[in-house]
Amino acid sequence: MAVETLTLGKALNNGLRRALERDPKVLLMGEDIGKLGGVFRITDGLQKDFGDERVIDTPLAESGIVGTAVGLAIRGYRPVCEIQFDGFVYPAFDQIVSQVAKMHYRSRGKVRLPIVIRIPFGGGIGAVEHHSESPEAYFAHTAGLKVVACSNPSDAYTMIQQAIASDDPIVFFEPKRRYWEKGEVDTEAPLSAAHPLHAARVLRPGRDATVLAYGPMVRTALDAATAVADDGRDLEVIDLRTLSPLDLEPVYDSVRRTGRCVIVHEAPSSGGLGAEVAARITEKCFSRLEAPVLRVAGFNTPYPAARMEEEYLPDLDRVLDAVDRTYGW
Amino acid sequence: MAKGDRTKAGGGGTAPPEPEFVQLLTPDGERVAHPDYTVDFTDEEYRGLYRDLVIVRKLDAEATALQRQGELGIWASLLGQEAAQVGSGRALREQDMAFPTYREHGVLYCRGIDPIMPLGLFRGVNQGGWDPNAFKFNMYTIVIGAQTLHATGYAMGITKDGRVGGGDGEAVIAYFGDGASSQGDVNEAFVWASVFNAPIVFFCQNNQYAISEPIERQTRVPLYQRAAGFGFPGLRVDGNDVLASYAVTRAALDAARQGQGPSLIEAYTYRMGAHTTSDDPTRYRIASELDAWQAKDPIKRVRAFLDKQQLADEAFFAEVDAQAQREATHLRERVLSMPNPHPEQLFDNVYPHGSPLLDAERAEFADYLASFEGSAN
Ligand SMILES: Cc1ncc(C[n+]2csc(CCOP(=O)(O)OP(=O)(O)O)c2C)c(N)n1
After folding, report:
1. Which of A284, B17, B105, B140 is least surrounded by Cβ atoms within 10 Å, i.e. has the fewest?
2. What's the CA gap between A251 and A281, in Å, rounded?
3. Interatomic CA distance for residues B108 and A100, integer angstroms
4. CA A88 – ligand 1 centroid, Å
């Protein structure tokens, strides 16, 4: 075992490196990912080591990045596209939703598109507009795409490799404000032994209420659980990890035990992942619920200017407030 | 006619020589003639251009300093691009409309707009918040290239309103960068402007880089030549020459307002600073490149010209510097005293007439905030 302490960003970098080493068909493409190593340095050093034929600085055109990835995939490559920020994926939306998502279906299974679209997402970094959004629901709503979100360095390292090895097109969300957080990563464990990509994971067992999160909000949920542990309240925290397909069996198991569930995400509540998850929990666990499933989410406004984001973003207090409210029924 | 810059902006070493560009003032401050373009400024107007250049550079440096001190979240500096912005900005007539990117602080200044206006965006207290029609200057657009379509639509509206033709017709200028030229939106804007003969000038500041990517990543032909394929004229101007930038923009806008349709101007210039304060250009470009462009500085050449022509003396230059300093200090003071938004402003202006959902969220949020009042934390 070779356990290293890495930031989430560096773990992704190492994971991409392993994928490039493993399969010569893997290509990285995106804006400023070569010499600069990406604006978050996730691809730092990779162009130097693998060359500019495999780590490609693309023209400034997101529809082009994803559209050409489709052609490259048809030609047998495994493109990994970097979208520089969440708010800049929309020029590629047509390619992702109308082309990437549907090609396997339309070709009656003859075309596989092993494309990964990496998107740093979420807020909390004090950025200007279009740099802090959480667009995951658009993609989770689209059949034919798979959608995952990593929350910690260890998962980042394995999940990016699993996503690249997958035959499905995958939108891969990276919690940008957690890029600098450190954690232990076993860089030698075989990928086959890793927790499956499309599986949720209980990160903290607990008896009293279930808190669901993914991406950047997992840390918030864990902090909330720690904060109330001393008061004798025992929260179970589950990292959803996969947003499409959802893996809810561990969630149902948990909610059947706790009877209370709060789901946390930065994206606005309306039409968000929380709504989907709450509906399914209600369908499966209705008789065991002590309270409605509550959502702690971004408000139904555009992502605000940076000096209001602290209020906009779910935080520990709002999570605990919701947990409290599940006791009010 | 002067030659364009032949030094490569970065990347490989096989680029063909750069084509000629329109230049009226050499880097040494020599006034040169061009067969198609000239300017006819009074002495006072020449001095005015110098004043603009110095002030916009100074305000820009102040904003960079404010960012370094944590007073702005980020800043996109115009350093090096002052001539392209002041030249084109002063070429606008009062009735003309501008659609900027996030870097056109110099154009904004030349429109007579208070430079404090865009700083709320960079400080993170708002997202622009001004009325484009009131200032004839659209809000800054961060999503690369999107504003070129907005500008085209606005120009189509001018035509529909019968405001094209004659000297008092209206025209539009759309700013964008060399990187933006790759976006679908920009290419669609070219198509639309062409098909509808819209009164618009596409003004591309080719500052050689899109963050880290040199121009070769976006194009194999000089950008201005792309216009031909869309069916309208394109030309390259020395974007570090304020006189030439003014002359070509004025001519293109006047042609547009008289009904001659769109055109593309490629202002050949250089981003002397980082892409933004978040960027580290040492990772992708060499210092000698910067030195070469420093010799072509847009302000130095105007000062040399004023000197040589004896249009200004030391007292004038000192007075301009003093004014620039005063404006910068004033700007700083107002940035520091910019109030933070009240949290409940989150819910304002999502829709013109509100929505029940937002009303409910706002009320719940107010209750939630009130629940903390009186508690220790
Ligand atoms: C659609 C979109 N993709 C990516 C970005 C991130 N980004 C911001 S500025 C920039 C480079 C822009 O280069 P250019 O158009 O040459 O303008 P410059 O910044 O050099 O003035 C990029 C890639 C963005 N803002 N919008």
Report:
1. B17
2. 8
3. 41
4. 10
> In angstroms, what CA-CA distances link B230 with A204, B217, B330, B361?
60, 21, 45, 49
User: Cα dist. B335→A47, B13, B104, B126, B329 in Å?
Assistant: 41, 45, 19, 13, 10
The tens digit of pLDDT for each residue in A120-145 reads 999 999 999 999 999 999 999 999 99
Residue B358 lies in a domain: no
Task: Give ∠ CA A87-A88-A93 in degrees, rounded to 5.
Answer: 100
Q: Which of A55, A57, A69, A66 is nearest to A13 (CA)?
A: A55
The answer as to CATH 3.40.50.920 being correct for domain A201-326 is yes
Q: Is A63 on the interface with B (CB under 8 A)?
A: yes
What does the pLDDT read at residue B19? 64
Within a 13 Å sphere around the CA of A58, how many CA atoms are in the beta-carbon half?
Answer: 24
Strand (E) or helix (H) holding B90: helix B82-91
Peptide bond into A314 cis (omega under 30): no
> Is there an atom of ligand 1 within 6 Å of A31 CB?
yes
**Region of poorest pLDDT, from A228-232, B12-16, B168-172, B180-184:** B12-16
Instruction: Identify the pLDDT of residue B166.
Output: 81
Whether residue A155 has pLDDT greater than 50: yes
Coil, strand, or helix at residue A26?
Answer: strand
H helix and E strand count, chain B: 13, 7
* Closest CB to B182 among A37, A61, A302: A61
Ligand 1 centre to CA of B212 (Å) is 10
Q: Of these residues, A104, A131, A141, A195, which one is catalytic?
A: A131
Domain with CATH 3.40.50.970 in chain A: 3-193
For domain A3-193, say whether CATH 3.30.420.310 is its number: no
ipTM of predicted complex:
0.96
Residue B85, in any domain of the structure: yes
Helix (H, G, I), strand (E, B) or coil at B232: coil
Q: Using a CB-CB distance cutoff of 8 angstroms, which residues of chain A are in contact with residue B360?
A: none
- Residue A130: how many other CB atoms lie within 10 Å: 19
Distances (CA, A) of B372 to A19, A307, B366: 49, 20, 10
Could you tell me the residue range of the domain that residue B317 belongs to? 2-336
pLDDT one-digit tens code per residue, A66-101: 999 999 999 999 999 999 999 999 999 999 999 999
Give residue-wise pLDDT tens across range A232-276: 999 999 999 999 999 999 999 999 999 999 999 999 999 999 999
Helix (H) or strand (E) holding A82: strand A78-82
Tokens of B147: 């504003």
Element housing A298 (H / E): strand A294-298
| Contact (CB, 8 A) for A173 and A136 | yes
**B368 in a domain, yes or no?**
no
B185 C-beta closer than 6 A to ligand 1: no
In tens, the pLDDT along A215-235 reads 999 999 999 999 999 999 999
Q: What is the pLDDT of residue B11?
A: 41
Asked if the Cβ–Cβ distance from A302 to B350 is below 8 Å, we say yes
Q: Which residues of B touch A313 (CB under 8 A)?
A: none
**B106-120 CB burial, b ≥16 within 10 A, e <16:** bbbbbbebebebbbb
Ligand 1 neighbour A259 (Cβ under 6 A): no
**Cβ-nearest to B283 among A36, A57, A301:** A36
Which positions 126-155 of A are in contact with B (Cβ < 8 Å)? Answer: 126-130
CATH code of the domain covering residue B192: 3.40.50.970
